[in-house]
Design a protein that fits this description.
The structure holds 2 protein chains of 2 kinds.
Chain A lengths: L6 E5 L8 H12 L3 E4 L6 H11 L3 E6 L4 H14 L6 E6 L3 H10 L3 E3 L5 H16 L1
Parallel strand pairs in A: 1-2, 1-3, 3-4, 4-5
Chain B lengths: L6 H9 L3 H12 L3 H10 L7 E7 L5 H15 L5 E7 L8 E3 L14 E7 L11 H10 L4 E5 L10 H4 L2 E6 L5 H7 L8 E4 L7 H15 L31 E3 L8 H17 L2 H28 L5 H10 L5 H12 L1
Parallel strand pairs in B: 1-5, 1-6, 2-4, 2-5, 6-7, 7-8
Helix pairs in contact in B: 1-2, 1-3, 2-3, 2-5, 3-5, 4-9, 7-8
């Protein structure tokens, strides 16, 4: 890619209405030079997968505060795989219990970030993951 | 993982309706790669059907919501047609990144396989579009999309590139943005084929509409007696000998969030297309567009060719000499070009 930019979808699945974290991350990734497609609140896994396809993103960040991560994340992964985007790096942010973090990583989630994570850490992890994909 | 597909693979898959292949091709086109150009070249003979509709206007007028409703209404009216939306947002000049948020207002369209939404960052281009927006509309046209809606960045006064790209340009205004005075300054009014007063339930909608109509009468040089017949575009089908003079832009009121006025807006978009065709203006707009496109490509190609024949720092050195006032920009270019030969 001659002047390709890293494209990231930041989505907020589930029914909780708190999108502050997602917006903070979206802005931080923009400030790290990425193109962030922000889809807003209450996205279904189907909507997220469809947006990831149309936008041909390199990574997807899911912000989940509702506690439904063990249902939502596998569903998004399954849909991405089904449409031929199984290699997209998936990142999860939110309030996730310790034991679920391990389970999510076992499923193939690249990283899970709790409250208070430095946005710079997230940006660097996404960049590293996308560069590893392209190699 | 991207580069494994050849342009031939991508083109074939796109013709079969593969949306992931189309998305990948969009990325190639957006990045200005040779592969992206090759895909368009392979498919170009399939293009020429799409109606390209530009949607522009100040930030906060509700362009995204309007595009969302318009696409929905078009799909309901034409169940067999495909709609593409290109939503352009600005790139941050500081980081080179962007937040592309237009999809937030386009939720109604998700789940519809015949709608394809692509967000695009300007990547430093001025004029309300990205450098590759034109090429991206070509790609969607090649892929068989009948309607292509192009939403520009929130345009102020000078971002009028859309008019060179679109067959039909909608300029969206909303009450309460101080636009009744802005409109007077704005060259943007003159590019409108259709004017939309969105958020028409907000206070001040009457005043906004009135000032738009007044501006129209000032900027469209028609004998005054003709105006009586051209209220809200109801007799716009009438052919006219003079190029582009026979269309008086209708002023329509919409409330996108409530889906009010959208059917009438879609009607006018259709009427405008028919009017272009009846008056042979469709072809002449296409011709203008291709002419502008070729000029840009020639310019870029000549520049690239010139640059490849130069020492890497030739341009930088000359910039320093201009800054030191040793040579003027004109002399600088004379020397740079004659070096080349």
């Amino acid at each position: 890619m001659s002047e390709g930019k890293i494209r990231v979808l930041v989505a907020k699945p589930g029914l909780d209405g708190h999108d502050r974290g997602a917006k903070v991350i979206a802005r931080a990734l923009r400030d790290a030079g990425m193109e962030v497609i922000y889809t807003g609140l209450r996205q279904t896994p189907e909507m997220i997968a469809e947006a990831a396809l149309q936008e041909d993103v390199d990574a997807v960040g899911l912000s989940i505060l509702s506690g439904a991560h063990m249902a939502l994340v596998p569903r998004v992964m399954e849909l991405l795989k089904k449409q031929g985007q199984g290699k997209i790096s998936l990142f999860v942010g939110g309030i996730i219990p310790e034991e679920d973090v391990a389970a999510l990583k076992d499923m193939g989630v690249a990283a899970v970030y709790g409250p208070g994570t430095s946005t710079q850490v997230v940006a660097e992890a996404i960049r590293a993951a996308v560069e590893a994909q392209a190699a | 993982m991207r580069s494994t597909l050849t342009p031939n693979d991508l083109a074939g898959s796109i013709l079969r309706g593969d949306r992931l292949a189309l998305a990948r091709a969009c990325t190639e086109v957006e990045n200005g790669t040779a592969a992206g150009e090759a895909v368009i070249s392979l498919l170009f003979r399939h293009s020429g059907q799409a109606h390209i509709v530009g949607v522009t206007g100040s930030p906060g007028t509700g362009k995204s919501s309007l595009v969302n409703r318009l696409a929905r209404a078009y799909r309901d009216r034409h169940p067999e047609h495909k709609v593409a939306i290109i939503a352009v947002d600005p790139t941050s000049p500081f980081s080179g990144g962007a937040v592309l948020g237009d999809r937030v207002r386009m939720r109604d369209l998700s789940g519809d396989e015949k709608v394809f939404i692509r967000s695009m960052a300007t990547r430093g281009a001025l004029g309300g579009l990205a450098r590759q927006t034109n090429a991206l509309t070509r790609l969607f046209d090649c892929a068989g999309y009948q309607l292509i809606l192009v939403e520009t960045v929130g345009a102020g006064q000078s971002e009028v590139d859309i008019v060179r790209l679109a067959h039909t340009t909608l300029v969206v205004e909303a009450p309460g943005l101080g636009d009744d005075i802005q409109a007077i300054k704005a060259g943007i009014l003159e590019i409108a084929d259709i004017l939309v007063v969105n958020k028409a339930d907000h206070p001040g909608a009457d005043a906004t509409e009135r000032s738009l109509r007044m501006m129209l009468e000032l900027s469209h040089h028609r004998p005054k007696s003709d105006y009586g017949h051209h209220r809200a575009g109801d007799s716009n089908q009438a052919p006219d000998e003079d190029e582009e003079v026979g269309w008086l832009p209708p002023v329509l009121r919409t409330i996108a969030t409530e889906n009010t006025g959208i059917t009438e807006l879609l009607d006018q978009v259709t009427v405008h297309r028919a009017w272009l065709e009846v008056n042979d203006l469709w072809q002449s707009r296409e011709r203008q567009r291709v002419r502008a496109e070729l000029q840009v490509l020639i310019r870029e190609m000549l520049f690239t060719a010139w640059q490849s024949g130069q020492p890497a720092d030739a341009l930088e050195e000359m910039i320093e000499r201009v800054l030191a006032r040793e040579v003027s920009p004109f002399e600088a270019v004379d020397r740079l070009i004659s070096n080349h030969q």
